[in-house]
## 1
Amino acid sequence: MAHPTPSWGIELQDIFCFLVRLKKTKELQKREQKKNLNLIIYEFIKHGIRPSKICKILNIKKTALQYYLSTLKKAGLIKKVGYGVWEILDEFDEKKFKKTSRVARNNWGSKFELLRQDQVRGHAFQFKLLVPERLRNWDKKEEVLSKKGIVFKSLNHLFGGGVSLDFKGRKVHLTNSSVIIYEKESYIADLAKDAKSAAIYHFLKLVKALEKHLKADFSVQGQYKFRVTRQHYALVKNALAKQYGEEGKKLEVYSANGLWFVIDNSYNLRESETVNPKEADVDNEKVQDFFNSLKALPTTTSEIHANFSELRQMMKTSSENQIMLGQVLQQMEKNVVRITKKLGENQDV
């Protein structure tokens, strides 16, 4: 009499069959990764395969996988329940994904009419990737590039020395300790954080291609050490920006950390833009919330204009007010000490 297969045995068989189907041919795997990687990772999670194993099977970095996990999470399909453990919340549906599009500089004409008011255009990204210590031949990069026939220019004293080259239409600096990449394209999304995630994802793809081009490995234990050193996020077709444009005016707002908000008319998109290198994505979310609240409680752009003018004046005088407040508090403290001392003397008498 045949014994029934244990439930855990059935699950293992399901996983094995899924992996066999996935890895039938290298070509199929590559095609599926490019076109439907969200679905593939969703199926892995559904079958209980942990992220570390998914990275090995698909041969992708943890940072790349995290991008897709975040996308699935935002779509309400999965939920993190523990370290490396995810739970399925709903059936896979491509329509649930928020679309993030990448747009080249010379392609705005065909895209402008499709953009909605206050959508986010992430652009002017700059990434700094740290080069691992003792990377082979990195100190001889000029010689290596010349032998490979790769055209480059010397940075001389800039960035402590190094070379500059063009790669896939981007300007790339190879310095003594880092690789600096200037992204030329824009990323359109509903939120700044989504535009930033898309930019980082394409940055990592570019790094992989650059590694292959230079025959180098910039990772440290399978991870890239990088940061975003410049980022701009603009709300397109913005009402306030439209008024400033019609009046031929510009707006620049500064805080203690420098310039953080501007209004200009780049590409005729009527943009209100956050530009702080470290906090532009967070600032943009706050500005977007502000304009969303105006849609719920309408007011005129003239009133907005007046409020911004008042805000600028308040920010201009805030440092002076802080100094005055500090002086007042200091004087109050001295008065309290003097009164306390006087009371003590009276009690002694």
Note: The longest strand covers residues 120-130.
## 2
Amino acid sequence: MTKLYLRPVGIAVARDAATKNANKLGLPLCGTALAFTGAEIFERSGNTIQRHGLFSIEELQRRELTQVHGREQVAAWLTVLTRPRKSICGLPAERPQIMGIVNVTPDSFSDGGQLANSEAAIAHALRLEDAGASILDIGGESTRPGSDPVALDDELARVLPVIEGLAGRCQAKTSVDTRKAEVMRRAIEAGADMLNDVSALTYDPSSLEVVAQSGKPVILMHALGDPKTMQQDPKYDDVLLDIYDYLEARIAACRAAGVQPDRLIADLGIGFGKTLQHNLVLLAGLSMFHGLGVQLMLGASRKRFIGALTGEQIANRRVAGSVAAALAGVAQGVQLIRVHDVTETHHALTVWQSIVEASR
């Protein structure tokens, strides 16, 4: 079977005229302040992948083009790409949201051991909210490259007091970053608003059932293999299409279990089983993943690829590169940015959003 993929290109600030004359000027991108003026078409048939080049919106809608490249598939892609995304946890999808990272771990790659107890973690989370985070992501297990799994009781002891301690003390939503179904279940009981699983609900056979029964939103992230070995010579046939297909399959599994798309967020998994070039290709092609029909999250904060590009080997000094990656994602319509450095990211997004609003 031949499968088509469309990567929106020519993304710019949407103007009223663009929506009134979409055939010539562009189509709105997922209900954001952006519009796209064309798309690159990819075609996959078995192991054969072809790139058919760039096409304007007008060309994409022409009868002769869609007859060649699959009229129904092109039309379906355009429908999904232009459909506004629903809010999650009451947070508007048309404006980028910031998720602040709260690692209650001794060995996370960037800030492990800095939050030695639950009170320190709670205080840090409240500072992140004051700095502009609308979601606080609490994690008790490091999944950095080369890391080992954490025992269930240890992970629970790290995250539950923080989630419980934040309940009633902040307006931000709380998320638990875990691969374990029991941690998910207990975190929800403690007050967590959403779930974040770096294994896309594949690590624990019971996790999908917990998510389906909870009614909570969940972030599905791509990772190639286990954290212990994922950076040992990762390979793909086509990193962009392979990861798209993986996330599409995980979304389908969630839907089959009763989890609707408006509760799902997809994350490409920057740095999780990817080389420097893989990460750059994914960031450049990020707009394609809007074809999944769900909100997108980008988590590139302080990661190793930034150090490889800039020469900065100390993770917490990669702030400027992290903000640049965040803005690159927002410029392609990403709805959620997961970061360590909330103040700097919030300032950058405030300036970016102000410029966008002034140009509409």
Note: The chain has 14 helices and 14 strands.
## 3
Amino acid sequence: MDYQSSPFAKKTMSNKISIIIVNWNTKEYISSCLKSIYQNCSLNYEIIVIDNNSIDDSVFYLKKYFPKIRLIQNKKNYGYAKANNQGVKLAKNEFVVILNPDTQIKKNTLGGLVKFYKSHQGVGAVVPKLLNPDGSIQYYYHRKLPTLKNQVASFIYNYTPFKKFRWSQELFLLDQKFENDTKIEQAAGICILTTKSAIQKIGYLYDEKLPIFLNDVDFSYRLKKLNFDIFLVADSHLVHHRSSSTNKLDPYTLRQEVLLSTIYYFRKNNGFMVYALTKIILLCLLLTILPLTQIGLVKSYLMTPIIDKKKSSQLQWQNIKAIILEKRNHPGLIAI
């Protein structure tokens, strides 16, 4: 056992943390996020905000009202993964917190994560219990890692009326109340506390070929591959407002990103047969929806309402071609 993984090393680690927040047009949320840190975090911390070329006056607002943060202004939107990697390189402390701007921490959120990490061996990352703004448990983000079975479970839950399907319940941990510290497979990137040492051992924080989706999933997979555990800490709570940046994107661009990221993840991590089968299933699904859209038998495209059949059909075909070639053909990660 090396020094960094020894019990003595963990207990004597500094409590200082580097909080990394990626901002893209979330002015209305990031203010509440930063205020919650100032009000509720008693640890010694630095805040690094990476702005991905926002156009909503976020930068002006942050400079005026939060002068103590370290603000990095990207000249273009590099995506969520690359921006977080920028933050890790700039972080001065061993503990690194990846935090979404549409969140609010509580009194014990970050302190509880640090305490748990330091007192448990074999842990590579810890996450808080996620709460909706009304205080109820927020599910679906912490879940099991993707497998072909779990992809089927996800599809059934999201696109059919069968919400009680057992595989789906298991995938999304819907039977959990998270009243006790819980070992989980996938850490949602909404809030992750890890260390530079753990990141170095798995190679890097996020795969930049997964610019928006599944980068946290790939991170979790690489931790598991090296026998690191991920725990949800029951007394660490975080309020999450959901999709503050992604809901500003064109929905067909979003679907393309999800589909391409899913195929890339399986090609990278699950072997050729599973990857090929996943791609074939997705293409069959998309090639079924397209003609049904054209004759007016479906009213939504992967949960996106179809308003104009002709325009939707054109955009669907663009996504099909992107999946076949495994190459993005959308105009970019731009606001609508």
Note: Residues 1-8 have pLDDT under 50 and may be disordered.
